[in-house]
ABC transporter ATP-binding protein
Amino acid sequence: MIVSEPMIRARGLRKSFGGFEAVKGIDVDVRRGEAFGFLGPNGAGKSSTMRMIATVSPATAGELRILGLDPATDGPAIRARLGVCPQEDTLDNELNVFDNLYVYGRYFGIDKATVRERAEELLEFVQLTDKRKAKVEELSGGMKRRLSIARSLVNRPDLLLLDEPTTGLDPQARHVLWDQLFRLKQAGVTLVMTTHYMDEAEQLCDRLVVMDKGVIAAEGSPRELIEEHSTREVAELRFGVSDDGNTHELLAGKLEDLGRLEVLPDRILVYSADGEEVIAKTHERGLEPVAVLVRRSTLEDVFLKLTGRTLVD
Ligand SMILES: Nc1ncnc2c1ncn2[C@@H]1O[C@H](COP(=O)(O)OP(=O)(O)OP(=O)(O)O)[C@@H](O)[C@H]1O
């Protein structure tokens, strides 16, 4: 492979299911060594895209190259160099923790001694050494996910695909996983992940695309996306709800000149470089929010601006 070749290159990539187009012609370039994310809500087309990249679902149209190879003709060669961690854990419940790694490694044709050594290393890496003899069903959700990640690393992949790596995990388990993914990134593994968590995308991704309804709405580093599509700060204002339930729309009319507004069912967001000033002016106008909060803009704000919706419905 030529070194400058992108790890993934897609042009006009499409995926249809019958008459329904889940991915509507996207362009993607993933560079060696980066952590790249597809951020979007449920149904955005992230998993459909990942499955094409994983070479388990053929593209309906467009061009796709993985590690410089064509999935239509070079599937096995690509898969030998990919690690895939699907959204649902597909561990073998019949086998213990160690054997899940060992048997998977043997599928790749790795010799017994090497696969044993790697399995031990990987258990150490995902902090499951003391569970090596445990049955899969005895593991917590976070441990299962870590074992899935360990398994996807058995063949020492150049490119690791993670479909919603921390969905369904509790906050502590998510942080443990983030640490491990960060260490993999530092070790030079190219990571490609989907997520609908903006904090995950901000923590882990060097670059990401914001995906919605099968198209890419924006692309860049988390910081670039926030700078381009949002303001430095956001003032969140909550008012008591009136009998007509219309309070936020009515109040928004009195705040319009303070910055761009997003009126959500439970709060008004005012986008401004100076959130405290927004709050001061709100009070000056005799408006009394029951709660206020000033925070930095996040990718959630970027998504809201681009699509008019929140990431998690
Ligand atoms: N095998 C299939 N047959 C028919 N429709 C499908 C199939 N797979 C996905 N879809 C549809 O394609 C759209 C995109 O689904 P996809 O799973 O790619 O989205 P996603 O962004 O990954 O969402 P999620 O976070 O729920 O996985 C959805 O409307 C989904 O119902």
